[in-house]
Amino acid sequence: MDYRDCTICEKPNLESNTFCIYCGAELPELGTKSRSGDTERIKKDIGTSSKDSINAIQIEVYKLRKEVDELRRNLHIFTTGDSSFIKSRSATRSKQVSNTPHGQTRSTTRKILDWEQIPGNWFARIGGLAILIGIAFFLALAFDNHWIEATGQIVIGISVGLLFLVSGEYWQNQYRTWAQSVSGTGIAILYASIYAAFGIHELIDTYLAFALLIVITLASAGLSLRYHALPLAVLAVIGGLVTPLFLNRDLPELHLMLAYILILDLGVLVLATLRNWRWLTLVAAIGSYGLIGTYIDHDEGLSIPLLQTGLSLIFLIFVGATTLFHLIWRKVPEYTDLGLITVNAAIYFSLPVGLLEESYFAWLPL
């Protein structure tokens, strides 16, 4: 039986074989001799083919990674409204573009929106706010008509708020958006209950009220961070800011309101430092300055030094809320961040002008 050697592995094969049984290379025709030059050429061709295959696989893997990142981005923004976390991931991925074979990239931007789910999400949030306002009006009406004593109102409010928090935690995995709205409503009800116990009914002293408000603020911040839930944080802040207006027809004492606002804003500062939630910062700033503006319009016997001190503290808190995230995490601010800084400064400038215009008009700048 005759044999012929493979030009690649140089092992003997049967004369009837077309391909080498050891390496798979094509065997030379009968009557030809293998030469070292042919061997090197064939090895080079096989090596080039393998390299091209590896490059093609790397390109496909990169494209798949881009598509997965885009899917995560759309899903995260749609469910939480926060894009800062995904932007940091995208920045990391962008560094890999230069290492992609042949620099090949492909845009995989896709709109993944469930249009049927959008109204459901907003109805859940609006419903939570409506429940909060309804409970506030009911408690105020019950107190005016002596249906429920002051202590009973506070107990009912705290119980309902805790029930909402437990329900939100229980349903978080099954109905994420609805559960976040329920949790935010519970936080706002707790704010309202403690504020009513301290500022309206005077059932608890100053130190206990502030301690409870701090606990509620920390709980709100913790839940928002845990759920990555911007809507929960916004709903809790809105509820905390509007409940003093619904619970009492007359404005409370200025120093109580300032302390209440500052505690709320400190919670916003913590959240804004850890998560660059611009909508939360904007809502909290407008609400805080708006509550102070009600005193300027309706109360003529204000302590101007106290009010100006409170305004300055609020301004400094929101200076931190718009800058600390970028300083600590070394992020470049966007135009929206610069816009928030400008809005904060503009409101802080305009309110003292209205406050001091009558008494110190000659000292005001043109």
Descriptive account of the structure:
- The protein has helices at 36-80, 84-94, 117-144, 150-170, 176-200, 206-227, 230-247, 254-274, 278-298, 304-328, 335-356; strands at residues 3-5, 12-14.
- A hairpin with a 6-residue loop joins strand 1 and strand 2 (12-14).
- It has a two-stranded antiparallel ribbon.
- The chain folds into two domains: 51-113; 118-363.
- The chain is mostly helical and 366 residues long.
- Helices cover 71% and strands 2% of the residues.
Q: Which descriptors would you attach to this protein?
A:
transmembrane; DUF2339 domain-containing protein; two-stranded antiparallel sheet; 11 helices; mainly alpha; 2% strand; membrane; 366 residues; elongated; transmembrane helix
